[in-house]
Amino acid sequence: MNKTSASGDPVFAIPAFKDNYIWAIRTGPAGLAVVDPGDAAAVQAVLDAKGWTLDAILITHHHWDHTGGIKALVARHAVPVYGPANEAIEGITVPLAEGDQVQLQGLGPLQVLAVPGHTLDHIAYFGQGMLFCGDTLFSGGCGRLFEGDAATLYGSLQKLAALPDQTRVYCTHEYTQANLGFALKVEPANQALKAYAEDVAELRRQGQPTLPSTLAKEKAINPFLRVEQTAIKTAAEAFAQAPCQTAVSVFAALRRYKDVS
Q1: CB–CB of 71/57 below 8 Å?
Q2: Residue 125 phi, psi dihedral angles, 5° rounding
Q3: Which residue of the set 39, 55, 66, 122 is catalytic?
């Protein structure tokens, strides 16, 4: 996984912890930017093995498994650290908010999107056909509500769903197979979902990552982006044991359902 893909994708995954991916973006023949480096040692091992230099660090939110490597990396590499304007994140040198842009060497600009819900400070980076969305959107799922409410996270997901269908989705956990198990419970007749689950199972049998996904794929299979579908509304209402009158109420019930599944 520690190389540019055969398709020419300038992004590759550096595995960390149990199921995190630190996304590494090639910024030139020997340059690298990393997204959410919770583990400095994993990043440094790639830099040392390849003889590459670190050019930038991008952070999506304040959770330790996304920020834990900042201090050690900047101690060795004098690089800008982009991230949400949250004083609780030690090491941010370029605080960002909705509408800002990040320009990485060798790439066009990445637009900063505010996507609160999982945490209130959560941002995403979008551009050049890529979306680095941290823990807001997962393949087949979405982040837990640690700080925001259901309406806030639903709005953030709708913002991401409005991006171009071909956008590649780089989320930061290998949760896909578990998420699809829940999605099939909610929408068992979804043929696209069944086919995707088979593909994902084969990738995991081979020890391969299931990411990146695409927004087109997620809009076809991810129940949290499909709350208007009758089957999903019915499943949410069955769990809630009450009618769900709005898209947000369906989403809220679905998120609670996933939490206990």
Answers
A1: no
A2: -120, 125
A3: 66
Pairing of strands 31-35, 101-103: unpaired
With vertex at residue 156, the alpha carbon angle to CA 155 and CA 157, rounded to the nearest 5 degrees, is 90
The whole-number average pLDDT for the span 107-113 is 95
DSSP structural state of residue 121: T
Q: Is 259 designated active site?
A: no
Task: Name the residue type at position 15.
Answer: P
Residue from 65, 100, 121, 122 carrying the catalytic annotation: 65
> In the structure encoding, which two tokens stand for residue 31, read together?
């340059």
- Is residue 56 within 8 A of residue 80, CB to CB? The reply is yes
Q: How do strand 53-58 and strand 31-35 relate by DSSP bridges?
A: parallel
45-65 residue pLDDT tens:
999 999 999 999 999 999 999
Out of 63, 100, 121, 122, the active site residue is: 63
**What domains can you pick out in the chain, each with its CATH number?**
11-260 (3.60.15.10)
Return the structure tokens found at 169. 């989705």
pLDDT digits (tens, 9 = 90+) for 178-228: 999 999 999 999 999 999 999 999 999 999 999 999 999 999 999 999 999
Please indicate whether residue 100 is annotated as part of the active site: no
Q: Which of 36, 55, 61, 62 is catalytic?
A: 61
DSSP 32: E
Decide if 62 is catalytic.
no
Q: Which residues contact 9 (CB under 8 A, 6 or more apart)?
A: 168, 212
Active site residue 118: yes
